[in-house]
Amino acid sequence: xxxxxxxxxxxxxxxxxxxxxxxxxxxxxxGAAKKNLRKIFPDHWSFMLGEICLYSFIVLLLSGxxxxxxxxxxxxxxxxxxxxxxxxxxxxxxxxxxxxxISFDVxxxxxxxxxxxxxxxxxxxxxxxxxxxxxxxxxxxxxxxLNWLIGFTLFVLALAEGFCGYSLPDDxxxxxxxxxxxxxxxxxxxxxxYISYFLFGGTFPGDDIVPRLFTVHILLVPGLILGLITAHLxxxxxxxxxxxxxxxxxxxxxxxxxxxxxxxxxAGGFFxxxxxxxxxxxxxVTINPIWLYGPYVPTQITAGSQPDFYIGFxxxxxxxxxxxxxxxxxHTLSLxxxxxxxxxxxxxxTGLALYPxxxxxxxxxxREHHILDRPRNMPTRTAIGVGxxxxxxxxxxxxGNDLIATHFNLSVEAITWFARVAIFVAxxxxxxxxxxxxxxxxxxxxxxxxxGRESGIxxxxxxxxxxxxxxxxxxxxxxTLTSHEVHRPLTLTEVTDANGVPAPNLRRAKLRAKATRWxxxxxxxxxxxxxxxxxxxxxxx
Amino acid sequence: MxxxxxxxxxxxxxxxxxxxxxxxxxxxFADPGLPEHRPRLTDIDEKAAKRSERIVAALFLLSAxxxxxxxxxxxxxxxxxxxxxxxxxLGAMGASNFxxxxxxxxxxxxxGAGAIYWARTLMTDVELPQQRHELESTxxxxxxxxxxxxxxxxxxxxxxxxxIRRTLIGAMAVLPLPALWILRDLGPLPGTTxxxxxxxTGELIINDNSISLDGTQGKGVRPEDVQxxxxxxxxxxxVLTAGDTTxxxxxxSAILLVRMNTADIKSQQEIDWGYQGIxxxxxxxxxxxxxxxxxxxxxxxMLCPCHQSTFDLSDDGRVVFGxxxxxxxxxxITVNADGYxxxxxxxxxxxxxxxxxxx
Lengths: 541, 359
What we know:
The structure holds two protein chains of two kinds.
Chain A: H1 15-27, H2 30-36, E1 40-41, H3 48-68, E2 77-79, E3 91-93, H4 94-104, H5 109-137, H6 145-167, H7 172-186, H8 192-200, H9 209-239, E4 253-258, H10 259-284, H11 290-293, H12 312-320, E5 326-328, E6 331-333, H13 335-363, H14 379-398, H15 401-408, H16 412-451, E7 453-460, E8 466-471, H17 475-482, E9 486-487, E10 491-493, H18 506-520, H19 529-537
Helix pairs in contact in A: 3-5, 3-10, 4-5, 5-6, 5-10, 6-9, 6-13, 7-8, 12-13, 12-14, 14-16
Chain B: E1 4-6, E2 16-18, E3 23-24, H1 41-44, H2 46-76, E4 84-87, E5 91-94, H3 95-121, E6 128-131, H4 139-156, H5 162-174, H6 177-181, E7 205-207, E8 231-236, H7 246-253, E9 255-259, H8 268-273, E10 278-282, E11 294-296, E12 301-303, E13 310-312, E14 318-321, E15 330-331, E16 333-335, E17 341-343
Antiparallel strand pairs in B: 1-2, 4-5, 7-8, 8-9, 9-10, 10-15, 11-12, 12-13, 13-14, 16-17
Helix pairs in contact in B: 2-3
């Protein structure tokens, strides 16, 4: 500020002002502060889902740092002599012994372990729900496709991070999970056995896997997650948040409340609420009581072994797949493992990652979108999403087929066979049903616009006829319900040149036209102004 | 946007797409603009605002009290094994964990609730519009950037000196390879180890339940100790001296001993490889390697608890249900001179999950 002329110069008097001035003379932060301190964010409950992801990740970092201070990532043998007497004198790995130590002899250790585990479950769950929110509202459309890819990568990293962490305590359950992973790695054609030997440092389980996963779990993956979360948030900040349609809300503006003070208090407060909720869970609800499972021994297992929920889909797919294995030319190809372990997840995840680009190709839409779609107004997209959830859900449920069998007194074979059929049938049915529901909801919106809202007041006409008075909607409500776009399918005119040779890009254009018919062929039109006036003047209702 | 548009022109011939990307734009009902702000009770009633203020302050105070309580509980409440708190419906919890979790949870939750309540009742709730900026650069910026880039390219001689360009690309392509190369020592090559178990002719069968806590002592199994219908988890005697590699050995060599009436056994080979109706099968599931454990005495079915592969132990360990594709391998057994069960030979095939080289 010293370069300014004397009459413009600002002389800070308060301590805060002086500190800000000190920083500004070195960093020039006033410009950024001027622009961002009162940055506007729109308000909606569904925008908090991403916040839950971020906050549970911070809780994971904090509790994880504490745990590393006491955990010994080693598979060396020790004899347990701690304060949990049922395991006294038993031989186990240092990793398991130190986890028992954290649980029983380090004060607050069990709390941190349980906070860490609950936060991990909430982290992955929040990512899933947040992703679905983005999907169903079309928030992935231009210009946010790249942020969708970053978010997708974060989702995959979160799954990997969760699995690594789950494997560290070297208890019977986590060792069984690693055994299954190793069995699946062996099924990879050509290199599978080598990957397994390199990962485990030889035969299973070896002495290396826990220290190696420890490095992956506390350094490599969290570093990647932290970096990508930063990029994810910078893009949200820079591209500004999406908002719902409403009076005064356009594609060119963002309507909401300022960062300072409202969102500092709300979002900051919400961090403490999320942390507090997880702390209460950690204090009151037992999660992963590894002392009940015992140390990992490859010859022992408990019935009803279950992975954490986010592995359930893969587990269920593995249980569902019929036992197809091919032997040829001295080699074995285990499709019973490859299909659920590699092929199905690859298709599902690739589809998820590339969906924004697929939809953009079908709609041919090159415009920016900052107003969110209501799911009902994009019935085919919504139906694809619900079909995907159903597919995932059937696999996930089958991951607990043994528990369903014992709890509901059903045969595990019957449940598995049901899942084998349902994984194909249920998503198709869900797709069809979702579209019907979306069209129904659109028609209801249409009726509401044309005839108003049911008021609950019944009148009797001079002729004795009873009818309910419908209150017309306000201009703002009419605008909100009709501001969405109705897409039309593409029609083609085949153009040939003088010699009758068809256009070179005909095949692709035809495919696209077909896709748009599938997407937008059936639709509910928006009421027009004329229809509205007709409905009003006809005196209907 | 409606109307005819020609796209993706390739030469003189093109496909006309009608209604390409067509949408009904605009809205039949004009945007009335931002609705007028409706004041909250706390905006117009100073008493209500004061009440809000007190609630926020009370929440912050509660947070501070809980924080101090947390530190007191840390030193005063005994650790998790000595005292248990029972509460419905979540079950039992160590007293220390219960107290620390409760106080920390309240301290954090009250802090957050206070801040949010403050924001919702006393801070402004007048919604403000802010213009979005154009993300795409102006044409001028784009062409200036492109010109700068071209200038940089020209200054480097990238285009004029293909020898440098090609050698650079080639060298950069091989440079990351050492990152893979250097990982070679992560583990030994598999060789034939995936086919080997500790079972050889005459190897003594040890009952897993007899193995001492330190893993160095164990007892053999006499045929007369195994009743019909009994299931015994067993290991080769080599595990008692395996030391650090015990788990590795067990994960390949674990077996199950079952005794059936020979009349119930459907396969002659299975009878021959057993001893007086006692048969030994690999305990490692041929699906992904979990130990099979759940035995149904009446049907002689053996279920893997991981993925429910079911094997018929009275019929060569054949798969009767589930994702496993291969039978459980049978270990030929006999008795030695001292009357203990031993292996007659090793397994005739690799045990455990399939792998590419298995064949």
